[in-house]
Design goal:
Length: about 300
């Protein structure tokens, strides 16, 4: 198994570290345009391998040639948010970056599965899908896992219970119109509405929607990377180990949930082929309306990309 990580910033380098530590690949290639940056980080990760007990080879490069024949391509490249910026504010700059990254990487690895982390996530997944020409099951965006993890964290904090007992689903676009689903969120199998009142649920839902901005406001000069990298690597592990995990991911819908030609987060079955299946869950009219609204927001920004 060979995995390429494009972007040696915080998300990319931390993802590479987690991939190596988990032994998910024989070889990891860390790519960035900044000379010396991927080489230095790759060497640093390599020097942690004897301590962690892994023999995964990792190299840093400014060229795409060493990425040839990768099985998975993780795209994290792009500028990060600053306080006061929305994910959509990044769109034009990051669309150009993701376009180049996709073009260069798929030339070397035409059979790879692409996972996109760059923001605005759903639109960047659309860019990678269009530029690569791949079938939709091989181009998947990481968003719902991160948003669901944030929701689970806030539920855990509120109730004082282990995160291991909490299951949560967040659908829709990775932005202000994301759709947390309290009805499908449970603690040890107990539905969330049975454990807290609606006002508390609404407060946690809002904090989940604002989760990325909350971190940006603390950091001032950067954005989240520990949780995003964990979420991306969970997807990689599901593919590498053919685990057939049911996870909320951003994929192109072609009529599912009544939505077409839009990339948006829904539950999928993730295995060795990438997206093995889109899982259809029953939504209330209110939940469906929220998902439609979120998809419309994504579609509006997709239409701004000049394809």
């Amino acid at each position: 198994m060979k995995i390429t990580v494009i972007g040696a910033g915080n998300v990319g380098a931390t993802s590479a570290q987690r991939i190596v530590d988990k032994g998910l690949a024989n070889e990891v290639v860390l790519v960035d345009v900044i000379e010396g940056m991927p080489q230095g980080k790759a060497l640093d990760i390599s020097e942690s391998a004897p301590v962690e007990g892994t023999d995964t080879k990792i190299i840093g490069t400014n060229s795409y040639d060493p990425t040839a024949n990768s099985d998975i391509i993780l795209i994290t490249a792009g500028i990060a948010r600053k306080p006061g910026m929305s994910r959509d504010d990044l769109q034009t700059t990051n669309a150009n970056i993701v376009k180049v990254c996709t073009e260069q990487s798929v030339k070397q690895s035409p059979n790879a599965i692409i996972i996109v982390v760059s923001n605005p996530l759903d639109v960047m997944t659309y860019v990678a899908l269009k530029v690569s020409g791949f079938d939709r099951h091989r181009v998947i965006g990481m968003a719902g896992i991160l948003d669901s993890s944030r929701f689970r964290t806030f539920i855990s904090m509120e109730l004082g219970v282990s995160v291991e007992d909490i299951s949560a689903f967040v659908l829709g676009g990775h932005g202000d119109s994301m759709v947390p689903l309290p009805r499908y969120s449970t603690v040890a199998g107990i539905p969330l509405p049975d454990l807290m009142d609606q006002a508390t649920i609404d407060r946690l839902v809002k904090r989940t929607r604002d989760g990325g901005a909350e971190i940006v406001n603390f950091l001032k000069t950067g954005s989240a990377y520990y949780a995003p990298s964990s979420s991306a690597v969970q997807m990689i592990e599901a593919i590498v180990k053919d685990k057939n995990r049911i996870l909320p991911c951003s994929v192109q819908l072609q009529g599912e949930y009544g939505i077409s030609d839009t990339v948006v987060g829904v539950p999928i079955r993730l295995g060795k082929k990438g997206m093995e299946e889109i899982i259809k869950i029953r939504l209330t009219p209110e939940e469906q309306a929220a998902l439609n609204n979120s998809a419309a927001d994504v579609k509006l920004n997709m239409n701004k990309i000049p394809f």
